Amino acid sequence: MTPALRNIAIIAHVDHGKTTLVDEMLRQSGAVRDNAEMAERAMDSNDIERERGITILAKCTSVVWEKGSEPIRLNIVDTPGHADFGGEVERILSMVDGCLLLIDAAEGPMPQTKFVLSKALALGLKPVVVLNKVDRPSADPDAALDAAFDLFAALGANDEQLDFPVLYAAGRDGWADKTLEGPRNNLDALFETVVDHVPAPEIAEGPDAPFRMLATTLEADPYLGRILTGRVVSGTAKPGVTMKALSRDGKTVEQARVTKVLAFRGLKRQPVEDAYPGDIIAIAGFSKASVSDTLCDLTATEPLPAQPIDPPTLSITIAPNDSPLAGREGDKVQSRVIRERLMRQAEGDVAISVTETEAKDAFEVAGRGELQLGVLIENMRREGFELAVSRPRVVTRMDDNGQVLEPIEEVVIDVDDDYSGVVIEKLSQKKAELSEMKPAGAGKTRIVLHAPSRALIGYHGEFLTDTRGTGVMNRSYLEHQPHKGAIEGRRNGVLISNGDGTAVPYALWNLEERGVMFISPGEAVYEGMIVGENAKPDDLDVNPLKAKQLTNIRAAGKDEAVKLTPPRRMSLEQAISYIGDDELVEVTPKSIRLRKIALKPHLRKKRAKETA
């Protein structure tokens, strides 16, 4: 029989405190012993998640709440808050019956709040609103609550959804109360509200119904193979039983014997002998079944409906590294190995699509944004891959009249009043349209613009410079609109090495007057590699290898030690958004280099004529 269950997702804008709140829920429910070691943000288990402080993959956990009239198991799903990983949120919401919508009491609802909330309301979920960080000096919970109510109404919430319960919380300090003047001791009010307001999973069919479950996430385990996670809709799952997988259109993908049924218990997945309807479990044993497939009993014939996913907005070309320095740092350099890795990624991540180019030597990878594609490439370089990556391009569509449509994003910017002018001017030049502008209090202005996705490629660094690092920019996909025309790109040319060898301090010292250098002395360079940014708009071939001529005549002033300006180092995302259409980023486990696609000067001239 199904134990008392509640399935909830925690959704919010990036950095509003989801993962920290889950930490406290695990501690206070007894899922983690008081004296046990638990890493901060325990759910962010991936290396890149811990380094960047963001959630990238949705993850499940489960706690038992025993202070009510009966023990109740809560299955909790922690979701990403960044728009680039929205594909994770869209799938996960189909597994749960309710959600906690976290809103920062100081910032109020942000673009990603709107995105995740619209998905939750469309599925008929009734959110519980948690105003988090109410203990901050800048918090204004009443204004945040009013803005949340307006957002619910604007997204077409029904009367039942508009009558949402509200909690005031400080997730980091581990308390939530139904009023702002509450005792501020623990999360009991949060657990009680979830138990009272989130419905138990619906079980439509009897205990003898055939087993059916929709796979919503997929991961590879070195020991168990493929692990598919989802919610049991009907029937019972047992290890050792043969099942089949149905695709969305009802075709049989494969038949397989279930080797393990795993349930989430605290921070661990534990094998169980049977799983009942409503529970969130993971199943091992299938070798071909993927996300959106229905895992079911051999007698079942109807697949479960799967949520359609928003389309990708950006694409890049990933090819094997073919520079003169290829193969020195990584051990995975063949296109076959790169193809297998990308296909595996696309299988588990529905927001990414991979296609082969006509020449079959490179791959077109489309995703939701620079961050999502950057994280994929960062993961691959850590695994030992060497890649050549192109500049991102937007994914366009054609409408019925043959007109080109491009993705438009809603950009919400909070800046100090002094910098609002420069931000609006820059984005207006990039074909962005001002939608709303209002004071946000504390000397800040909130600006809402609708901008083409391609105008925002690489803009974030420029934005931080313009606002002296004080601005906050959030973006989310809005819709496809008619193409806005040409947008001015990078204004400066680059300095290109004209030879192979090792960069020399004396040569770099002489080149400093030409522009900003990207390399340090002693670094390996090759012909066609970009070693700096030219102060002028043209590209310039330079010699970073030229050493000082030594003679036996002493100069009147003794030789001064060469003093060099530190080079500009780019992160992976900065490099990808910096390069032009005729350039590539060479990514290896230890280095990020910029280069021209055509390394020889005469080939570059020929290419420029062909594309002109």
Could you tell me the mean pLDDT?
83
Percentage of helical residues?
10-25%
Largest sheet: 11 strands, mixed
Q: How far is it from the N-terminal to the C-terminal residue, by CA?
A: 70 Å
What is the tally of beta strands?
A: 33
Strand portion, in percent? Answer: 25-35%
Number of helices: 14
Structural class: alpha+beta
Rg (C-alpha, Å): 27 Å
Spans of at least 5 consecutive residues whose pLDDT stays below 50 are 37-42
Shape: globular
Could you explain the architecture of this structure?
The chain is α+β, with helices and mostly antiparallel strands and 612 residues long. The chain is built from 14 helices and 33 strands. The strands form five sheets. Strands 16, 17, 18, 19, 20, 26, 28, 30, 31, 32 and 33 form an eleven-stranded mixed beta sheet that branches. Strands 11-10-15-8-9-14-12-13 form an eight-stranded antiparallel beta sheet, with helices on one face. Helix 9 (370-382) packs across helix 13.
In terms of topology, how is this protein built?
Blueprint (H helix, E strand, L loop, with lengths): L4 E8 L5 H11 L18 H6 L6 E7 L6 E7 L7 H7 L5 E7 L6 H12 L3 E7 L8 H14 L4 H4 L3 E5 L4 E3 L10 H10 L14 E10 L3 E10 L7 E5 L5 E6 L2 E6 L2 E4 L8 E5 L9 E3 L17 E7 L14 H14 L4 E4 L6 E5 L2 H13 L4 E3 L3 E2 L2 E2 L5 E13 L3 H10 L3 E9 L2 E9 L6 H8 L5 E11 L11 E4 L3 E2 L2 H7 L3 E3 L6 E2 L3 E6 L5 E3 L29 H7 L4 E5 L4 E5 L4 H11 L1
Parallel strand pairs: 1-3, 1-4, 4-5, 5-6, 26-31
Antiparallel strand pairs: 2-3, 6-7, 8-9, 8-15, 9-14, 10-11, 10-15, 12-13, 12-14, 16-18, 16-19, 16-20, 17-18, 19-32, 21-22, 22-24, 22-25, 23-24, 26-30, 27-29, 28-30, 30-33, 32-33
